Structure formats: C-alpha cells, structure tokens
Amino acid sequence: MRLTQIALLFTLGCGVVAPPAQADDDRADSSGVKAQLRRDVVDVLAQRDGEHRSFSRGMPRRMTRRVRVTSAPLRDSRGHGYVTFSVDARPLGSSGAWRRDSLTGCIYPDAGAIYLGSGTMYRPAAFLLGEKTDLVSDPVCRPAG
Fold first, then answer.
1. Element (H, E) at 44
2. What is the CA 83 to chain-centroid distance, rounded?
3. Contact 115, 40 (CB under 8 A)
4. Higher-scoring residue by pLDDT: 76, 2
5. Of 109, 115, 105, nearest to 135 (Cα)?
6. Which of 16, 63, 125, 145 could bridge across to 114 with cysteines, CB 3.0–4.6 Å?
C-alpha cells in the first residue's frame, strides 16, 4: 500500500512540475541555435587552431570552446529576431576555469547570419574564414527602442 501511494504522488508530482510547452519550444530553438554556432563558429575556430603557421616559433595553443546563449529572443529596430551568445574558452586538456566571453555576438536564426562583437560594433563571422569583412554599420544586435 505504501509503494502505491509513493507511485501515485510521484505521478501527480510530475504532472504539476512539468514545464509549459513554450519552454520546450524555447529549448528546442536554443539547441538549434547552439548547433549552428558550434558548426559555424566553434568548429571553424578549432580548424584554424589546428593549422600550422609557418612563421610562428611558438607551439600553437589549441583551445576548447563552449557556446552559451545569453538572451531570450529579441527584435532589432528592423523587426528581425536575434539572440545573443557568448563563447567561453580554455586551453585544450585543461581542467582550469573557463575564460568567459572570449567571443560575443548575436545570431539571426531565420537568416542564418552570425555577427561577432568588436568593441561596440559587429562584423560578420565570415572573417573567421579569412574573408575580408568590414564592421557593420546597420543597427544589428541591438534591441529596438
């Protein structure tokens, strides 16, 4: 009898504690954004870390990186949706503290555009691939209002 009461309370408790459907949607969106950021930023940086620079005397310092989504979905002055993110880093194989916010930026999930912060301005993430890019003069990554 005691076991059935515990099972009943557990079942009722799970129903009461279950998160709302919107939270599941936000989590799914966040995981999709994180996957795109891993592919288009973190993996590109890892590949660049692995390249040997012929004029460097020092050993290349490879890094481990992780992505954090740092805001709920926002809208800029043009009405486009975006979220901000941060990339933390630490030396590969280290168990030390993460260097927080080694890169910051925003991503427009609908357009797939990623911008990285440079001071108070932003530039397209394509510069990680060696492309020559200028700072963006449009009001990207800034909330409307």
1. helix 43-50
2. 9
3. no
4. 76
5. 115
6. 125
Give the position of tokens 């630490």: 90
Residues 49, 135, 88, 29: is their CA dihedral positive or negative? negative
- pLDDT at residue 2 is higher than 50: no
Q: Calculate the alpha carbon distances from 104 to 2, 15, 92, 117 in Å.
A: 53, 38, 20, 5
Return all residues near 107 (Cβ < 8 A) that are at least 6 apart: 33, 36, 37, 82, 83, 85, 113, 114, 115
Per-residue pLDDT reduced to its tens digit, 68-104: 999 999 999 999 999 999 999 999 888 899 999 999 9
Which residue in 116, 21, 59 sits closest to 124, CA to CA? 116
The answer to whether the pTM exceeds 0.85 is no
pLDDT higher than threshold 60 for residue 21 = no
